[in-house]
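Shapes recur. Our protein:

. . .
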Amino acid sequence: MFSPLKHLREQAVAHPDRPALVSADGTWSFAELERAVSAVAGRLRELGIAPRQLVATDLAPADDWIMTLALLHVATRTVSLTGIGATSALAPDALLARPGSSVVDAPLVVTVDRLWIDQVIADAHDEGDPEVPTVLYPRADAICRVIMTSGTTGAPRGVELSVSAVEHRLAHLHRYWTDARPELTLMTLSTTGGFHTALATLQHGTPYLAVEQADERLLRRAAGAGVEVLSGSPVQVGRVVQLMREQHLTLPSLREVRTAGAAPTPTLLAAIAEVLAVPVRGVYGSTEGGGVTMRMLHGGGDAADAGAPLPGIQLEIVDEGGAPVAAGVSGEVRYRGPGLASGYTGGDPERSFRGGWFHPGDRGTLTPEGSLVLDGRSSEIVNVGGVKIDPAAVDAAVEGFPGVIDAGAFLIEQLPGVPELGLAIVATGDCDLRALDQLLRQRLPGKHPTVFGQVSVIPRNRMGKVERSRLTGEFRRRLNLD
């Protein structure tokens, strides 16, 4: 049996009254969660949902968790589209969605909300709660989960995770990501971090806190649940830290903050130290490969240092021909391990998966001690008048400037064939843009932005990475270039 379902059954027997799912609507015990999953799995089979089908969900977080477990019970390929929006990158066999959702077309659409789930449970109870056999995935390499990712390109694609990949990640999560401590993850089930954290709660017998919105109510629930770990992307964690500062909220049991998706800035690390006073763990990885490296972050260290590879991960820096380079030499990052995804739905035109390795598009070096130091993303390096520039380095150069709340660099052509570097800024009213321009000319001689503009928000993907193509589109509209 797929281990998450096995763990759910074991917890329901050993700790039936222990909280398993906590949401804004209430708390489900492990016994209640198992009964709900079994009843819903039975109803889904009656509706025609069958093993190996690709079934998408777009639901409230707690409902999404119940439906996801029920779909694993039926041995389908599951994908959560919650928070992603409409996409044409998938062609699912069925869609389980909240009323009014139209994220994707599917031959079978089932409208699901809490009333629907409660009615299914009530119907099963009236029938004596018949046992619904768990359908087994046929092989270890069978796909059980598809997770949508867009990187920084904005083009969504599905990452296919096999049963063996998920099982391997779950067996090793305690080494770098989630463990037996009660945790509040700000990542949704549509992300690899959120999905695997939720699965791990079944293994450890801890509650899964379903996040509708990171607000005061959520933080009070987290405090009541004795949360010891707060995890999320740097942007997500930063918003919670700011909320806690403004509302004078506390998490009395908190022992650690964990981040992934991007490197936290020195400003965020300082805010965590001030407001939460707990250590910060930074994990580098991807949806495709899971966790790759990890290190504890401290103010004053090299923000580009991602740490040493995790056990079981083989990581190399290679040149343009694919040959490994010596320590200290910059090149393309590639890695492999037992938790690697099987590939992408619809093919891999960029050949990110090659010869058993995954190429995430990052550049970096390895120190003599074996730590990975990132140089930027190959896919983001832009050529401006013959000068290669990493936009992320421009973002970092703005960090800490008075009045700047957030920033994102991007490429734009005001004249055909003449690329320029732009910088979008979220700033307070007293921010001195002329002084910022002068500072960047000093810090980045020959690589400074020449197009500036204020925006209400820097567009980012679910993991907090800047979607630079959207900034390019916005400024092209502003400058009437379309």
The longest strand covers residues 404-415. The chain has a mean pLDDT of 91. Residues 421 and 449 are 5 Å apart (CA to CA). The radius of gyration is 23 Å.
